[in-house]
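Batch manifest, entry 17 of 40.
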Amino acid sequence: MISVLLAKGMADNTNNQTTDNSSIFTHQVLPYLYIFIGGVGLILNSLAAWIFFRVPSDSGMVIYLKNMVVADLLMLLTIPWRVASEFGLGGWQMRVVVCRYSAVVFYTSMYVGIVLMGLISLERYVKVVGHSCYCTHLLQRVGFAWILALLTWGLLLLSMLPNLVLTSKPADEESSRSCVKLKTQLGKKWHEVSSCFSVALFWATFLLMAFCYISIARHFYKSQRRVKQDNSKVYSKSNRSIFSLLGVFFVCFVPYHICRVSYTLSQSHDSGYTKDTRYILFQIKEMTLFLAALNVCLDPVIYFLMCTRFRESLLKKLPLAGGGLGTRSITIEQSVSKI
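Output type: structure tokens
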């Protein structure tokens, strides 16, 4: 179905010789998908914020997760602007707002969340596997966690905000169809550099997470062989949590980052890409970007898996938990499944 819509869009795009790479899929299907994840994500992240900001910030992981909630809420704020633009509300001026402001907030929030997930994996690795040393104690200090979180926000803002400032060329209906046409020459260069930097940051974070969580899984496996068989289910559940986190991260972010550099380079007229190739890359970028945005719905699941206090607070508020069943299961796993 999607391939048919894309093929029809390619034919229309070729016949009309427009500079707009949108299709039936991006104009009539994706907006409704964004409305769905926006509604679900708002409910889940509002609940997460309500619970998390009642939890004391007494560990690095809690601090990182709180910052992830803030990043997700900021990302959710950009979805209505995107949907309005795709539906043609606000005219071409709405597309300019999305290019200059909304997109910058979206990408900043997304990469802040990605880096924070890497920091969480490092904190878990140091706590579970790491040997006793100065670095181990430093990474678990609350004050140092706040410094790393603030540095993450600062680094991504420093990388992304120039895209807002340098998207400053006079806009009209034609130029608003492509965000790159609103950028100055320096803005185009900065966009390419910041895109490559963001992609490199993502892959570095992905490798860090893979190393940390695989090391933790191996540590649990070795520990399982030294403890009673009764605890084997606890360790198995912990391992499932680890690979669930990596699975979510892989599904949401890897497809987008495989195609992002090629898409960014294709936006330049002297890139050598054909019109059809630019159209296809745009469609792939839009589909994979939706998967990345889907992360706002899956992050609350990560909070539940990773944070014992979040899990305990949530289960206490569920009528079926009854204050007993949820607490009892959490107590059994506290020493192992804080990942």
